[in-house]
Design brief:
By secondary structure, the protein is α+β, with helices and mostly antiparallel strands. It has helices at residues 2-25, 107-118, and strands spanning 42-46, 52-60, 67-82, 85-100, 130-140, 148-156, 159-172, 175-180, 183-186, 202-217. Helix content is 16%, strand content 48%. The chain is globular. The model is unreliable at 1-34 (pLDDT under 50).
């Protein structure tokens, strides 16, 4: 009887271990997130000269120079419009263009900060020259200051996480504009884990991002 019970328990045990292992080890990629957008509609190309990401990073436990802010340019991007409404989109950021704005008049400090942010301590730009955001769902918003909810996959340093932005979206006269809310993301979730020495001020995990897109209808 004991032998029979043992033979019944062994397969059940391994089946449960396999199930748990599969759930635990499934990586988070864009393929695992629900995508309800399509490419049906008219294509618009991002105007990279008039589009940008605004960023802001913060220190705590320090009374001066508690934050830096700046911009990142887009390398490329496109959106699809269907029935005069945003249907889908993907935007690729040029991480080599990352720069501070608050230090624009302080050349030496600007060069030092930009170099540090692009180094292996932060965004490893040589290894990961681009970041991206791909919209997976577009929904109208009837509350607050923004008319649209954008669900999508944000990829930084090869790590992809789902991120939702509230945004004001406008489609008119052959042009699409997207202006998102300032959105805090946790940099450590994307492998940006540098911590400054305590005497220089502790760097907060949260980085604020704001996306501003202008796209023109493809002719």
């Amino acid at each position: 009887m004991k032998k029979r019970l043992f033979s019944l328990l062994i397969p059940a045990f391994f089946a449960s271990v396999t199930l748990v292992s599969c759930k635990k080890d499934k990586p988070l990629t864009s393929e695992n997130n629900e995508v309800s957008t399509t490419k049906d509609g008219n294509e618009y190309i991002v105007d990279t000269l008039n589009s940008k990401i605004e960023w802001k990073g913060y220190k705590i436990f320090k009374s001066e120079n508690t934050s830096h802010f700046g911009t990142i340019k887009f390398e490329s991007g496109d959106v699809t419009v269907k029935d005069d409404k945003l249907e889908s989109g993907k935007f690729v950021a040029d991480m080599n263009s990352l720069t501070s704005v608050d230090l624009k008049d302080k050349a030496e400090q600007l060069e030092k900060l930009n170099g540090h942010l692009k180094s292996n301590d932060f965004f490893e730009v040589e290894k990961f020259p681009t970041a991206s955001y791909e919209i997976t769902k577009v929904a109208a918003s009837v509350e607050g200051d923004y008319n649209t909810l954008l669900d999508g996959n944000l990829t930084i340093k090869g790590i992809t996480k789902p991120v939702q932005f509230k945004a004001n979206v406008s489609v008119k006269n052959g042009e699409v504009s997207i202006a998102s809310e300032p959105k805090d993301i946790k940099r450590e979730e994307f492998g940006v884990k540098f911590q400054a020495p305590a005497e220089n001020g502790v760097i907060k995990d949260e980085v604020t991002l704001q996306i501003n897109i202008k796209a023109l209808e493809k002719r």
